[in-house]
TrEMBL record:
Keywords: Cell membrane, Membrane, Phosphotransferase system, Sugar transport, Transmembrane, Transmembrane helix, Transport. GO terms for cellular component: plasma membrane. This is PTS system N-acetylgalactosamine-specific EIIC component, Man family. It is found in: Cell membrane. The chain crosses the membrane at residues 6-26, 33-56, 94-117, 138-161, 181-201, 208-236. It comes from Pasteurella testudinis DSM 23072. It comes from the Bacteria. Signal peptide: none annotated.
Length: 257
């Protein structure tokens, strides 16, 4: 599948907007589960876009930027991964293995870009002392423009110039390499979940984890059925805690305390 100039520009604009959302908008437009279907819609393969976006969302779900520790860039990883899967007709797990190296490289570039922009902060401090609000606004707008433009080219260049050769490269690669990328891509969602569980896992959640594992691994229930059961458990737990709160307040009132 060949990707035209207009499609590449549209994907670049999408990356531009998502890049601003990642650090400023925070509307979650930049998440793979949102970007993947949009990329698929632009390239005419919505189903693959949804599959790749959902798979990559599992990878990045537990990865959060903390100061200087930045995870691989979620936006370029999604755009490149979804584009790769659509143009080469490969499995989404293989696309994950291809997307992550791009995401790491772009995040290194963004960190370098932020390091350069940090030199402007002293100038902004001086503007703040002088009450130069317009100057501060201009610096912020300039920073957003530079960041968005960086995202645009990071998405546009590999999509427009690389998509044409991606299929040929896949055909040249040995089957063992493709299988290896698929295995690596399949492991990454598990790593993402492991990181997420390390952050939020508590002893009270362990029984729910075991139930979910039994339902998925042994009973082999569909994901939708497991999600519905988990939703019911969450509602029951919420209602039970709400009832306990009401009873405690009632007892306190009756005791006159």
């Amino acid at each position: 599948m060949e990707i035209g100039l207009l499609q590449s520009i549209i994907l670049g604009i999408i990356a531009f907007i998502a890049g601003l959302d990642l650090y400023n908008g925070l509307t979650h437009f930049h998440r793979p589960v949102v970007l993947g279907p949009i990329v698929g819609l632009v390239l005419g393969d919505l189903q693959t876009g949804i599959l790749v976006g959902g798979t990559l969302e599992l990878v990045w779900m537990g990865l959060a930027p903390l100061a200087g520790a930045q995870p691989p860039n979620v936006i370029i990883g999604t755009v490149v991964g979804a584009t790769f899967a659509i143009t080469t007709k490969t499995d989404p797990t293989v696309a994950v293995g291809v997307a992550v190296p791009f995401a790491i490289a772009v995040q290194m570039g963004i960190t370098f870009l932020f390091s350069i922009m940090s030199a402007v902060m002293s100038r902004c401090d001086q503007m703040a002392e002088d009450a130069n609000l317009k100057g501060i606004d201009y610096v912020n707008y300039f920073g957003l423009l530079v960041l968005g433009t960086f995202y645009f080219f990071c998405a546009f260049l590999p999509v427009y110039f690389g998509a044409e050769h991606a299929g040929k490269i896949i055909e040249m690669l040995p089957k063992q390499v493709i299988d290896g990328l698929g295995v690596a891509g399949g492991i990454m969602p598990a790593i993402g979940f492991a990181v997420l569980m390390k952050i939020m896992m508590k002893n009270v959640y362990i029984p729910y984890f075991i139930l979910g594992f039994v339902a998925a691994a042994w009973l082999q229930l569909p994901v939708l059925a497991i999600a519905a059961a988990a939703t019911a458990m969450a509602i029951i737990d919420y209602m039970r805690k709400g009832t306990e709160t009401v009873e405690v307040k009632k007892e306190e009132f009756e005791d006159g305390i």
